[in-house]
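Deliverable D4.2, example record:
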Amino acid sequence: MRPFVYTASATRVIFGPGVIERLPEEMDRLGFKRILVVAAPSAVSQLRSTILGLEDRVVGVFDRPVPHVPISVAEEARQLAQTLGADSCLAIGGGSSIGLGKAIALTSGLPLAAVPTTYAGSEMTSVYGITDGGLKHTGRDPRVQPRTVLYDPMLTVSLSPALSASSGMNSIAHCVEALYAQDGNPVVSLIAEEGIRAFASALPRVVTSPDDENARTLALYGAWLAGSALGSTTMALHHKVCHVLGGSFNLPHALMHSIVLPHATKYNRDAAPEAMTRIARALDCGDAPTGLYMLAERLRLPLSLASIGMPESGLEAAARQITSAPYPNPAALTFSDVFALLRAAFVGEAPTLDA
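Output generated by the structure prediction step:
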C-alpha cells in the first residue's frame, strides 16, 4: 500500500427524509442571524414555507444563480450580501446555487450552509469555480466549505427523471476520478466505489419511478459519498475537459459530464487498472468505460456532445486548452489523444475494448 494523507471533512451532515424541518434550529446552532439565501426561483417556490419559517433571520434572497458561476453574477451577489449586511449565506438547490454561495463566501468570508436538491455533490467540498472571459477558473479554499449540509431526499422528488439521471452521472464522475486521483487513499476509494454502486442501483429506479422514496434516498446517499470523494482528492482529465467545455461553450453542466465520462474513463483505462476494476465491480459489468456508457444509455441520456450544442469547430481549440494546462492524470495527455477523446464524445461513439 502506498503512503497517503487523509483529511476528514469538517462539514456537519444531517441526512434523512424530513430533515429540512430542522433548518431553523441548525441556523440557530450556527449563529446565522442575517442570512442571504441563494436559490433558483424553483427552489424558492418549493421551500417558500421553510424560508418563511426562518423569519427575520433572512435579510434577502438572490434568485438568479447561473451555471458555471459567471464572474458578473458572483460580483452582483457579493454586492447584495454586503449591502444587506448579511452575516451568513444559505445555498439551496443544485451546483449553480451552491457554487454561487461559495463565490460569495470566497471573498466575503461569510459562513455557508447548504441544502442540496440535486446530486451535484459540490456541497461537500472546498472546491469553487468561477467563469471569467470564457475560462472557468477553479480552486480550493476552506472558506467556501459549507459548515452544515442538510440532505433531505424528499426535496429531490420534484427533480425530473432526466435531470436526476444527468445529475447522478455527474456525481459518478467524481467517484471515478477519485479512484485514480494522484492524492487518493484507501478510505476515499471505499467511499467512491460505494458511491458508484449506490447510484448504479438507484438511478434506473429513479428514472422509472420518480416518487420512489427508497430510490431517492439511495441516490442522495450516493451524492453525499461522491461529494465527499470529490472534496478529498484532486480531479483529473475528465474534470479538466468539462471545465474547458463548460467555460468556453456554456454546455449544460450535468449532461456534459455524463457524455464525457465514458470517454475520459477509456482514456485512463490502461493506466489505472485498479480503479477500473473497482468501477466495473460497482457497476456489475466487465469493463468500466463500457459500463458507464451503457448506464447512460439505460437512463436515456444524450450520448453525444453534438446533441447538447457543442460546435464541431471548437474541438481543436478545446483540445489545445486542455493539454496546455493539464490536471494531473494517470495517462499522459497529448493533443492527438485528447482530440480523439473529444471527437468520440462529440459523435457519441461507444467506448470499446479493442478501439
